[in-house]
Amino acid sequence: MIQIDRLTKRFDAIHGIFDVTLRVEPGSVFGFIGPNGAGKSTTIRHLMGLLHADSGKASVMGHDCWRESEQVKASVGYLPGEINYPQDMTGEEIIRLTSRLHRTSREREDRLRTIFPFDTSLKVRKMSKGMKQKLGIVTCFMKDVPVYVLDEPTSGLDPLMQERLIEWVLAEKAAGKAILMSSHHFPEMEKTCDRAALIRDGRIIIEADIDELKRRSVKAYQIGLKSEVEAQALADKVGIRDGRTVTVTVSTSDELNALIATLTSFEVESLTSGADELEHMFMEYYGEVTS
C-alpha cells in the first residue's frame, strides 16, 4: 500500500533523507520513530507529493507520489504534524468543507464527532492545541480511504483522547487499512504498531517487528528495600545500589522470573519500572549511534 525505495532528498551535505526504504502492508500499522529533525516529516512530505526527491521513489497503491499526487491524495487520509487550518474559519466550516471535497459519510463523521468531541463553533485561532488536534483527527478520518499517514497524531491530546485514538487506529487496522504513524509517544506505538523503523540523521538505522524490537530491549526496574544493608545485599547479587534503591536490568522473561525469585528473600518496599520497552530500545540505539 505504501512503498518507499531508496528515497533521497539532500538539503545540504548532512541534512535530508538518504536511501530511505520501507513498506506498509494492508491491515498493519508501521511506526516511524526518531528524534526531531531525523527525517520523519521530510519522508512523509514526499509521500504526500509536497517534496520532489533527488532520487529513489515513493508510491501509494502503485501511484507515484510526485507524478500522480492527485490520485495519491484521493487514497490517503493525512494528519500533519502541525495543524494549520485557516485561522478565521470555524471547526464546523472546516468539517463541512472536508465533507464537500471528499464526499465523506455523514455516519462516519458523526461517530468521529462523538469520539473526539470539541466545540466546532469556535474559530481555529481561538482553539487550544488539543481542540485543533481533534479537528485534524476528525477531518483526517472522515475520509474512508485505504491508507492513512499520521504525523505525531496524539500531540496535544489528553490521556483519554489518546486512548480513544489508539482504539480507532486499531479498528482501522482491523478493517484492512495501511497506516504509517510517526510518533514520540511510545505507549501508543507499542499498542498499535506491527513493525517500526528508527530513523536518525536521515537514515534508517534499524527496522523490525515490534515484538522483535521489544525482545532486543533491556528493561530497567528500581527496587526499594527496607534498609541500605538489604539494598547492598541485593546489589551484590543483581544490580546497582543508590541508597536504599537498587536498579536491575533484564532482557528476557527468564531473567525477569529469576529476579522475582531472588526478591522473595528481601523486604521489598517498592518496585517500579523504567522507560517503556520501545522507548528504552530507542534510547539504546540512539545512544549507540551517537557514541
From TrEMBL:
SUPFAM superfamilies: P-loop containing nucleoside triphosphate hydrolases. Pfam families: ABC_tran. Keywords: ATP-binding, Nucleotide-binding, Transport. GO terms for molecular function: ATP binding. It comes from the Bacteria. InterPro entries: AAA+_ATPase (IPR003593), ABC_transporter-like_ATP-bd (IPR003439), ABC_transporter-like_CS (IPR017871), ABC_transporter_ATP-binding (IPR050763), P-loop_NTPase (IPR027417). Residues 2-226 form the ABC transporter domain. Belongs to the ABC transporter superfamily. PANTHER family: ABC TRANSPORTER ATP-BINDING PROTEIN, ABC TRANSPORTER ATP-BINDING PROTEIN NATA. This is ABC transporter ATP-binding protein.
